[in-house]
TrEMBL record:
Cellular component GO terms held in the UniProt record: cytosol
GO molecular function, one term: heme binding
Record bears the keyword Signal: no
Protein name: DyP dimeric alpha+beta barrel domain-containing protein
Origin superkingdom: Bacteria
Entry keyword annotation includes Iron: yes
Residue ranges constituting the DyP dimeric alpha+beta barrel domain according to the UniProt record: 9-151
UniProt xrefs under SUPFAM superfamilies: Dimeric alpha+beta barrel (SSF54909)
Cofactor requirement: heme b
Length: 465
């Protein structure tokens, strides 16, 4: 069964990404139900001088000055007046919320909700997360002022693109994103990712698993064409990462198989001007991530960050003999069609990843302790089957491959120096096991939100209870 897609009913930034320089996430509380409903009604009807228009998933003839979208928590749906009978039709993980699901996500210790700053220390008050994307910072201020007329702003999180499309760990990011049936995205021209069914991201459509459709919350006008988002504030310990690369490189300098990792006569293929120790640092970074820091897949170019011939950033797969480590961040989060224990799960846990960096610039030569990181959105049709399954089973338990079971993702995982380990691959099929790396990414807040369709936003605006 195929369902015709109406892109005008889908909120933007789900099926196609925005290419804007800045984002502002407004964490909102509904304190005046009538004002909130009126705002949503006006936003879905095209906006006005006082209300920003909800951005739809259609292609633009003229690029708008800003994009505006909303996600609503379970408590937010209740605050807007959604009936208890309809609230019961939403998935349990969404109902419970991110705070109560923290252990499953690896959010404990320094990443635990008890350490999250306001407003995420009061999750019942977080009702909506409104996001504004623009190339002009002043537009963010204008929209925030409009939003404050109808909601109480509990907090603000600002993000930006870093130069060269990188994140604070130095990797080029945002290379691989799903492509969807019935969706033309000019930004993905030439991308060779497999085409995913709409049910990967939207409710009411077939999924990758034959005969499996995720339940659409009731009424259909509320649930159909909606999606779910795990909004995460992820602090990245860039200084700690660079320090660990130093530690690992020092250890590898004394390893008997060192020259299998780096050809000492071709260091320029790893990076211009690098010495042997510097080249080893980059190999460790590449194997931990699954990509070199310039974005080249390790699977396609295990011996060179700068290969002699260009390679595709997306057209590759994994095999039993892959040089890309099974425990790498890239391979854990998306094992593609490669060998995993749960073969039925290949390509079924795909997530739409959107994100921008926050915090001050980072200079690896002069590291500091300022907080910086990623404002991330992990979007899919089912939080439990996609986001939570990836975070628990693949990122933090390694259940997809016996070779990594018991080890956490080296970049995103809940690691401690006492127990962490990661196996680097060698050309002869052997491995070198690294130990002692710390947790490098800490959760600093977040919420599960429902991304309603335009029809659903209209429905919510017309509630009368």
């Amino acid at each position: 069964m195929n369902t015709k897609l109406d892109l005008a009913d889908i909120q933007g930034n789900i099926l196609r990404g925005y290419r804007r320089e800045y984002v502002r996430h407004l964490i909102l509380e509904v304190t005046d139900r009538t004002a909130a409903r009126q705002f949503l009604g006006a936003a879905v009807d095209g906006g006005s001088d006082a209300v920003p228009e909800i951005t739809r998933g259609v292609l633009w003839e003229v690029k708008p000055p800003f994009c505006f979208n909303i996600g609503i928590t379970y408590e937010g749906l209740r605050a807007l007046g959604t009936s208890s009978d309809n609230l019961k039709t939403f998935p349990s993980e969404f109902v419970q919320g991110m705070t109560k699901r923290a252990m499953k996500l690896g959010d404990f210790g320094a990443s635990g909700p008890e350490k999250w700053p306001a407003p995420f220390d009061q999750p019942d008050r977080v009702h909506l997360i409104a996001s504004v994307h623009s190339d002009v910072p002043e537009h963010l201020d204008i929209v925030e002022k409009q939003v404050t007329q109808a909601f109480t702003v509990l907090g603000v999180r600002n993000g930006r693109n870093l130069p060269e499309g990188k994140v604070f760990f130095g990797y080029v990011d945002g290379i691989s994103q799903p492509r969807f049936e019935q969706v033309y995205d000019p930004e993905q021209k030439g991308v060779e990712e497999p085409i995913d069914p709409l049910g990967t991201a939207l409710l009411g459509y077939p999924t990758k698993q034959e005969g499996v459709w995720f339940r659409v919350p009731s009424p259909r006008s509320l649930g159909f064409n909606g999606s779910f988002n795990a909004f995460r504030i992820l602090a990245q310990d860039a200084a700690g990462f660079e320090a660990y690369l130093d530690q690992a490189a020092d250890e590898l300098m004394e390893h008997p198989d060192r020259d299998q990792l780096v050809d000492p006569n071709n260091l320029d293929r790893i990076g211009k001007g690098l010495d042997l120790r510097g080249a080893l640092r980059e190999v460790v970074a590449a194997q931990m991530c699954g990509r070199w820091r310039n974005g080249v897949p390790y699977e396609l170019s295990p011996n060179a960050q700068w290969p002699d011939d260009a390679v595709s950033p997306t057209n590759f797969d994994y095999t039993h003999t892959s040089r890309c480590p099974a425990g790498s961040h890239l391979r854990r989060g998306n094992p593609r069609g490669g060998p995993i224990v749960q073969r039925i799960a290949n390509y079924t846990r795909r997530l739409v990843r959107r994100g921008m960096s926050y915090g001050p610039d980072f200079d690896p030569q002069n590291p500091d302790t300022e907080e910086r990181g990623l404002l991330g959105s992990f979007i899919g049709a089912n939080i439990g089957a996609q986001f939570e399954a990836v975070m628990c089973d693949w990122i933090n338990l390694g259940l997809q491959d016996p070779r990594i079971t018991g080890a956490n993702d080296p970049l995103l995982g809940a690691n401690t120096p006492e127990t962490s380990w990661f196996d680097m691959t060698l050309p002869d099929g052997g491995t070198i096991r690294l130990h002692g790396f710390p947790r490098l990414i800490y959760t600093r807040g977040g919420a599960y939100t429902f991304l309603p369709s335009l029809t659903a936003i209209k429905y919510l605006s017309e509630l009368t209870t």
